[in-house]
Structures are given as C-alpha cells and as structure tokens.
Amino acid sequence: MADRLGPRRALRFAFVLLMFLYGTAVFAPLLASDLPLTMVASNERAFFRALRTLPIVVEEAEAKLGEGGDSEASVRAVRLRFDELQRGLEGERHLQVEELRQAFEMLVSDPSASGSVAERTAQLRETLGLEGAGLEDSKLVAVRSYPVFASLTPLDAFWMASFFALLFAPFCLPRRAGPWLLGSTLLITLSVGASSSFGRADLLSGLKADMTSGDVRVESALFVPVPFGFAETHLDEGFLPPSWARTEEQARNDSIDVRAGEPALDSLQRHWLGTDALGRDVLSRLLHGGRLSLAVGLLAALIVCVLGVVLGTAAGMFGGWVDLCFLRLVEIVQSFPAFLLILAGVAFIPSGTLHPAITIAIVIGVVGWTEIARLVRAELLRLRELELATAARALGIPPLRIAFRHLLPLALPPVLVAAAFATSGAVLTESAISFLGFGIGPPVPSWGGLIAVERDASVWWLQLFPGLFVFLTVLAFNLLGEGLRGSLRAGSGGASAMGGAE
C-alpha cells in the first residue's frame, strides 16, 4: 500500500490517521461521558449530605487540632462541605454559613481558642431546616457547573494541551526543529502511562441517576456527543446491536429507562455501536479504551528504543568484550518465546506494585529491544570508521561523547523506521494480552479486553469494532514506517547522485 501511495503520501495518510486515533483517545472524556459538559442545577442530595455530615467532620477536626495531630485531611473535608452549603444558599442563610466558616478558620489558625464550632454547627442544621424537612420543601440556588471538566485529571489536561502543541508545532517552529519536537512531544504526551486516566470520573459518578430521580434539580444541561460513561451500566440493554442494525422491537423496549441527557430509545444516536453484556456503550468504551491501548503501545516502543539504542551504541562503539557480551545477551533473549516471557512477566508482577498498563509496557519493552539494538550496533560499527570519528578521537574527545553526540544522530533515521514498526507490534501484543485476560481488569476498557468480552458470532459488533480500531492503528504505524523508509531511501539516493555528479 505504501508503494502505491508513495513515501510522502503514505506519511501524510499515516499522520492523519494517527492524529484521528490519538485525538479521539486524548479527548475521550469530552466525547463520551455520563457527565454533562455544563449544567445549571441545584444539587439537593449533595447539599443535604454535606449538611448532615458537617457536625461530624467539624468535631473530628476540632479534636485533631486540639491534640496537635495531622489535621490537614479533616480541615479539607470541612472546607469542602462549607463550599457545598454556600453554593446552594443565598441571602441571610448564606451569611450564616459564612459566619460559621470564619469561626472555623479562626480555630484552624489558633487551635488554642475555645472550640465551640461543633455545637454551632449542630444548631445550624436546625436553623437551615434539615430536621424534619423533605427534599421537596427545600429551595436551593441553581448554580452553573462544569462536571466533565471537574472530572479531568492533571494528566488529562497535559495530554490535551500537548496534543494541540503537537498539531501546531510544525507551523510555529523552524523546519529543522519541527520534526524533532513533533516526535518528542508525541512520545512524552502519549506514553506517560494511562494509570490515572480513569480515576476522577468516579468523584461525580451517579450524577445522571440523581438528575433522573430529581435529587439534582436541573434547569439546563448540555451533554457530550456520546452521553454514556465507559463504566455506566444499563442492564436492560445488554447485548443491544448498533442503533442502525436494530429491529423495531429492540428499539421500542418499554422496560428500558431513558436517563437524563440520553437519546430516545428509537434514536439512531442511542448506542451507535451497540452495547455489551452489562449494557455498557461500546463506542464510549472504545474511545476510552484507546487511551490505554495506544499509550501502552507508545510507552513500550519508547522503552524498546531506549534500551536498544543504549545497548547497541555501547556494543558498536567499544567492541571487544562489550560487543561479545552484548551478542550473547541478544542470543539468550531471542532464544525464549517473547510472548510467553511477556505473559509470565505480567502474571507474576503484582498489580499493587505497578499499574498493569505500565507493567505490560515495561515487559514488552524489556523483551523486544533486541532488533533495534542490533540495528544500532551495525550502524555504529560502520560509522566509527568514518573520518569524522577518527578526527574526534584524534582530538581526544571521550568515546561516549563521540558515540552519542556525533555518531548516534547519523544512525537515528533507520531507528525511527524500526520504532514505528515496534509501536504497531506493541499495540498488537497489548491487545493479545488483554484478550487472554492478563491485561487491565474491568471496568477499565482496552481494545483487546473488549474483543474478549463475548466470542459468540451473534454479537458481532463486540469483535468487529475493537478489531477495526486495532487494525487501523497497526496499519497507520506500518504505513508510517514504510513511508519513512521510502523517504530515507529517496534521500540517500539523491545524496549518492549528487556525490557522483561531483
């Protein structure tokens, strides 16, 4: 396919396809979530929960402040509850809470003062009418909030900002600096590990159910394009085919409850790619699963490149017993079945020690470095005989400086080609590991794990769409590698022709 497209067209097509795949993965929380992007509502459930538990946490904070112990967590819990109360009140009641909050802050700044905040907090409950008052009698202030953005982790924000930097870097930087920043930003941004990519959404879990039941009174809300969370279950919609392939009976199942923000039962936008056994939206899980599968693939490729470049450079530059030990190590590693070593490493490393995603990437990297290392060694053996290296040695430059500063940059172009193929192989390996059940456990999705959910041909959408995403990723990286290889050949051919002309 790369031969038909040509090196430049193959590179462009691969770049566009990779930007699409990584863009959907990076911005998955803004594309598929059970939380609204923005809403104007009064959260009565959270308000009364904060009011009910405020005396308890205030009393606990007072005790720890009086004892001089670690009270940071208790003080933070009190402040969060004061924030929730003030968010739902206005006028005189808001001032009452503010007065009590100032008294608590004075106690925090001077723990030796008499602690009466807990008693006043208990009185506040009666003043605000919690005792004997139902939720339907309350009148709280509706405030604008941004739940999706509140659920993002700092890592999510870093990914999104770096993705934009990756897109605009070639237009804002000199031609020489653009490709290097492009590659480094891609590696740093998308291989930092997916360990914290799914954490903070649980802070607001159940918000859609509260909106449906009326515990959260909504004046207006705007949901994301796919208003389903990757772990949100709809048991009555288990094994539902894609919306465009449903029968009329499946589209009009009256036993299914439509929650707040969700499309109607017969809408084509309801579960575009179907659901799994627990009624979880396949498209939402595909988008979020790409975050893990793609990040593991790039992180594993980064480890492969670092180990291969360092070991190959040392063997090619120093030779002798260093090269001999390197060759024996390569033979030992290659004598074992790589996939079995990866399975053994993933199975025996406890998930509590390392996040499974990082474990998979490290094991793949430790096992798969040999090809790149041999390539770098061969390039260094050739380059160290050039006049450039001979002149550097004559000037007394240390061998390591010669290797990494002067020779290694000349050997990197073929390494970049090998790295593209290594990334596609790592994505396939991670998918296979997750398919066999040794990857990330539910409810966190990965593409291989999604394929393994159900192997019955009657639920074809559970195998087709995750497999299609894996295929497109591997195709994009293979085209990238072939395009780079063709460009390098064209460049070396042009250089040779110029040398012959001279």
Protein architecture, described:
This protein has 502 residues and is mainly alpha-helical. Among the domains are: 103 residues, no CATH class; 213 residues, MetI-like fold (Orthogonal Bundle), CATH 1.10.3720.10. The protein is 65% helix and 4% strand. The protein contains 21 helices and three strands. It has a three-stranded antiparallel beta sheet with strand order 2-1-3. Helix 13 runs parallel beside helix 17 and helix 13 runs parallel beside helix 21. It is globular.
CATH class of the domain at 289-501: Mainly Alpha
What shape does the CA trace take? Answer: globular
Q: Roughly what is the average pLDDT, rounded to an integer? A: 78
Helix content: 55-70%
Unreliable spans are: 130-137, 187-203, 494-502
Identify the CATH architecture of the domain at 289-501.
Orthogonal Bundle
Secondary structure blueprint with pairings:
Layout: H1 2-5, H2 7-26, H3 28-31, E1 36-43, H4 44-67, H5 72-88, H6 92-109, H7 117-127, E2 143-145, H8 147-151, H9 154-172, H10 177-190, H11 207-213, E3 216-223, H12 248-251, H13 282-318, H14 320-335, H15 338-348, H16 356-367, H17 370-383, H18 387-394, H19 399-435, H20 447-451, H21 461-501
Antiparallel strand pairs: 1-2, 1-3
Helix pairs in contact: 2-13, 2-21, 4-5, 4-7, 5-6, 6-7, 9-10, 13-14, 13-16, 13-17, 13-19, 13-21, 15-16, 16-19, 17-19, 18-19, 19-21
